[in-house]
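User: I'm writing a tutorial on reading structure tokens. Could you give me a worked example: one chain, its sequence, then its tokens, then a sentence or two explaining what the tokens reveal?
Assistant: Sure. Here is the example chain.
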Amino acid sequence: MAARNAFEMALVTLLMELLEAVALETKKTARFRSPLKRLDTTLRNIEPILYGNGRLSKVLDRPENETNMFILHLENGKRLVLKCSTVKIWNAYKKSVHANRLIRLDQELSDFFQVELQDNMSISMRSLTEVHALGVKMDQALSTVTNRAGGFSSSCSVPGLPDFIVGLDVHLQELKHMLLKDANQVLIVSAPGGCGKTTLAKMLCHDDEIKGIFGDSIFYVTVSRTTSLKTIVQKLAHHLHVTNCEFQTDEDAKNQLENMMSQMGSEKILLVLDDVWYESQSIIQDLRLPIPGYKILVTSRSLFSEFGSTYELSLLNDEDARTLLCHSAFPFDESQINVPDDLVIKMVKCCKGFPLALTVIGATLCGQGELKWRTTLQKWSEGQSIFHSNSELLLSVQASVDAIEHLPIARDYFLDLGSFPEDEKIAASVLVDMGVELYNLDKEGMYTSEYLLELSSRNLLNLIVARKDASELEGYCSDHFVMQHDLLRELAIHLSSQEPVPQRKRLLIEVHENDIPGWWIEQTQPPISARLLSITTDETFSSVWYDLKAPKVEVLVLNTRGKNYTLPHFTKTMKNLKVLNITSYGIYASELLGLPLISSLSNLKRMRLEHVSLSPSIHSICELKNLQKLSFIMCEIGNALESCPIDSPPMLSTLTELEFDSCYDLKEMPARICDIVHLEKLSITNCHELDALPKGLGSLSNLEILRLHSCTRLAKLPESIVNLHSLVFLDISDCLSINSLPDQIGELSALRVLKMSGCHGLEELPASVTNLSLLEDVVCDEETSYLWSYYESDLCGLKINVVEDDRLANFRKIVG
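And here are its predicted structure tokens:
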């Protein structure tokens, strides 16, 4: 009993000390006033429990380990509060993390005393709305920092680890010892592609000892062949929430980085540069800064011996190699193997201990019988190779592509992935657009999804499935992305480049600086016969184009990183062009010039613009006579859409799909959108500044899909929406400001699916919802599900799908 009383006294003392610390820090700093006041309120509500008759004993009537853990939380909480005034005002990143930890401390207090607080505390609806609004703002901030609509990522956080790792534990200990003990500032991890360098670097960053030493000051940057010093510094600046970072020169970027690093207040800093190419070694030199405790870890296929310290990652030994191969080839039950052991041993030896080769070949042979293993080995023994003889790893990977020869479209998709820059996410919807025109696939993406899953199962790409509930209505590939290992991308490019340039089915061109391929400059080549043309340029490209005769091109992919980008003048001669995809992978949106060139492309059907700034010349798009799908992804649009002449013919009269995603400056849709009479699908998502839809939206009589997901300022749906009698799918999820639905929404007689999770301002449903006789699925949060429960008996066959809404928790998980 005495021990219990002593424990209670210790708890009371700690809580009182925490309350005093909160009061002190609230007076000293305004930076964390909001979370500190919130914490103070929680502590004031807890205080009566401490002195009430038996109430504290009731709270402590739980397992000893749980109460001991809470004591530890309080001790850490006090230190956390007292550190508020030490966080630098300029360091937005640490401010965000610290504020998040204060919020989490408040939640831990509330959770621990929940038994009593349920009777003493209530949260008003307004407070709930404010918390939800904070979550949405956090989402927007996080989206700005970590996402680029599935493409460019400015986050420098450490990526997660693979599910299965073998043979790297010893390497991890050796690398960690070198990093901590070696006097050199730079440490290189070197090995051929596909050997596990990136995985080893991630393991190091996730190691508890390393995290204990470097804390939050671990930054991870993937360096592609076109990455510049300025791009890296801009990424770091964005990650640290340092704004207005414009660099005139590399020297300027280096100086500003040194200032940022010096002012962080961290004793130890670790910068990881993953996959640095030989041509980019100058970047390593430029990032060496005279800052105590600052280390750079580089992974590269090159040795870079001039930097002093190199850890050469060896290949897997036979035992680990066999383990990895068998894990990939026999994922379910190794005891059921029907392949002779000698074949497994020979396959392991042929893979030369390369982890990627073992994984890819294992997946290729998964479920195959002895004959397939023998024929694969026979091909290798006969010297069949897709690369030069000095590349043993790529020889092994050849079999993975040979294995899908019976799936020619899947193989084509694999080769098409060479059209995009390395280390970037590729929206699966881009591949759908290409597949529709090149391979006559369905525009909903069902077959594309099937082929991508097939390639993913063979480890030929990494398919990132953002949403598993995508259906035919939204598109099977909706919000999904594809990534490809550098080695496999090189394989795709190599396979696409076997014939002479004029005869290639797909022509993939990379231009570094202004180094145009010689065959192009000389103009001695006959017209190319490629159906797919991809041109990738870096941020230094001056948009000076040489003529190119490409009369058969049907898909044109243009990748840029520059601030300004002018369309190639020869685009206007591509009379067979059906798909145009223009993407900027730079930090800032590229200003797109030369758009009038496309006005003569009478066969252009699908156009996607991503991360570009559009000028008033956007009217050239409005004049396209046969365009069926138009997508603006993370584009700066402003009022450009208003520039389409009013007296022109009906705007985009053949358009059936129109998409706006993450266009942050889009505030209002122009009324002329309602003139696109054949429009079947309208998607406006993550446009947080959009506050109004055209009043005449209901005139889109053919509209079947309307997505308004995460348009957080959109206050209401136009009344005319009830005239959309062809509408089968409506998504207003996370439209935070919508507090009511049109009274006659029941007139949407064809509606089958309604998604509305996160509409917390909605207090009631119109009585007319009982007329939605075809409604099959309502996807909403628990709070909204209660509104629908009153009408379940009137809507036969209705299924209410309740989804969790924990945006704040997700934010804490990422930045906490």
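What the tokens reveal: The mean pLDDT is 81. The two ends are 38 Å apart (CA to CA).
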